[in-house]
Fold:
Amino acid sequence: MSAVCGVPKAGCSCEDSDDAWCPAEGGLLSGERLRIAIADGATEALLSRQWAQLLVRAFCEQTGVSLAVEELLAVAYPAWKTWRQGYLRERHAKNRPIQWFEEPGLAAGAFAAFCGLELSEREHSASGEWSAIAVGDCCFFHVRGDRLVRCFPIQESSEFTNHPALISSNPTGNTLLSKTVSSARGAWEPGDRMLLMSDALAAWFLKEVESGHLPWDELSSLVVQREEGGAIFMAWLDKLRRAHAIRNDDVSLVALYLL
Amino acid sequence: MYKAEISERTPSCFLFMIDQSGSMQDPVGGSESDGKNKAKAVADAVNRLLREVVLRCAAAERIKDRFEVGVIGYGSKVGPAFCGDLSGRDLVRLSEVATHPARIDPRTKKVEDGTGGLVEQKVQIPIWFDPVADGGTPMCAALQRTTSILEPWVNAHRASYPPIVINITDGESTDGDPSQAAAALKALATDDGSVLFYNLHLSSTPAPTSLFPDPDQSLPDQFARLLFDMSSPLPQQTRIAASERGYNVTEQARGFVFNGDGVVLVDFLDIGTRPSLR
Structure:
């Protein structure tokens, strides 16, 4: 199984971007199983970018385990604990003590929305299966030809809110996770496009579809142009933001074109 | 209206008016007051509100300057009430408020340890104001001072979410009926809407807490009626946020709180993505 993967260049998100994605760089991906993921840290929670990065890495590196969110957290929790301890030690060592306004956020933990996709091949076949999990409003769109075959977990642009479900780095913040995690399965064929997006771009994408447009060609062409990709993507985003067609928020995209 | 983004690029403004008059020596009425006097209740309320605004804008090692903040005290005199490095200043950046409390009080609180038990955690509580109860209650003069501070602000920030003024008082104005001065304040506006004037009424009348009533609800005393009548209606987004959190608010709900916790007013503001409260 092979796919061309496109991701935006650095700098496509707002200055304090809390988005993370995996793989970090675009290019040709091959293997029996492929995993891609996107996560969007909650802006009002501290250190959410680091938690988002850790989640996508934990998902993409664990191709041998199931997609269950419990498996993801079994890797992510200890990794987070180690990272956090190192962070607090470094702050102390550099004489940058934790300030009063950081304490509640550090105690509560970091939070992020998440969507992960795994593809596997069928024996003696050019096609295969996909599985996805999601918590919150990072979205997966499955495109075949000029048709949107599947959108997950959100079906309509009106469903986006400012209070999506989130995965917490703190176990006490995940007591409702079993109710908020979604999963989905399907089949893929060569030529299919699998797109993961954080919420601002996903909301724009769904609105375009609801208006009868085919937004995937526009997006695919923006990430495939790897040479000048960054500047062209930014200019396109600026145009949408000025027209208030997209929320002024971090924008992240992982695009897979299956060969 | 009331839809402008509140961000570092387009900041908004909080201005608190705190009643520091002699009448605040009396105790707060009602069963939730713990017998404290109104001056302590005012100091606690504004300290909690400032803390809440700062926490809503906290990031690692910095504060996002989404608001400018002012505090006008009124009692024996009327003027900016911050002390120390912020002394004498009408409006300061939120990051300056965060890094210049008058002092930090260490406290402990019990938190869940994740395995069903409770553990004690040390917390640092910032204090900007101590109780003051001295002099008359020149609410009209305080409103006029607030208007003179906010008029150039709204002119310089036409695209911003309008300023939110929160008046914390027992309502017993001694320099005349403040209704007209309040109307002049609420006449100020940005392109996104008029100044929002909310009142936190701390009363000696022993009546239950009332949050965001509408005009049909009866109020405990004449001062509550006066303050209620001056309070702005809650904007639609704020009503939606209130309902999502389980508060019963109608379309006519006003930004008025009687003997209750006004911190929810900050909680209702739409700033950034945050962990769900459910």
In short: The interface with chain B takes residues 16, 40, 42-47, 96, 99-105, 107-108, 111, 162-166, 168, 170-173, 176, 248 of chain A (CB under 8 Å). The longest strand of chain A covers residues 111-121. Residues 77 and 136 of chain A are 19 Å apart (CA to CA). The radius of gyration of chain A is 18 Å.
